[in-house]
Design a protein that fits this description.
The chain has one domain. It is 80% helix and 0% strand. The protein has five helices and no strands. Helix 1 runs antiparallel to helix 2, helix 2 packs parallel to helix 5 and helix 4 packs antiparallel against helix 5. The protein is elongated.
Length: 130
């Protein structure tokens, strides 16, 4: 997990130095969002493992408590995360910045991470109900 953060932040610093044009303003913001979501996805994976092994008791694990706490500290609900990702798409469609291949790849990665995170949130609710 520490390696993911280090790589993402070093890429951000390099990109900021070489991409001064306004059309690349999305880059540092998307890199930050991907880093946040990647860290949460690691926590989600750990929580999912606890739920798989221990069922409902997995909800009481530090992995699940930490994941839930960190998620809701950043986004009040699931729709907020989805809306944040969608805001980049809308801004690109409105011409606020050019969404090149790298931008599209980053948005795709955001969506993949969102699905992973949302899946575990759903799994937690399922474990609570059954």
């Amino acid at each position: 997990m520490k390696h993911v953060i280090a790589v993402l932040f070093s890429v951000t610093a390099m990109a900021g130095a070489s991409r001064a044009d306004a059309e690349y303003d999305y880059f540092p913001h998307l890199i930050t969002l991907i880093a946040q979501m990647a860290n949460l996805a690691v926590e989600a994976d750990n929580c999912e493992r606890q739920l798989t092994y221990y069922g409902r008791k997995g909800l009481e694990s530090e992995a699940c408590k930490g994941f839930k706490e960190h998620y809701y500290a950043q986004w009040p609900d699931r729709e907020s995360l989805q809306d944040e990702i969608l805001s980049y798409v809308v801004r690109a469609e409105q011409g606020e910045y050019v969404c090149d291949e790298r931008c599209r790849s980053m948005l795709t990665r955001c969506e993949e991470l969102r699905i992973t995170i949302t899946y575990v949130l759903d799994y937690m609710e399922f474990a609570l109900d059954y």
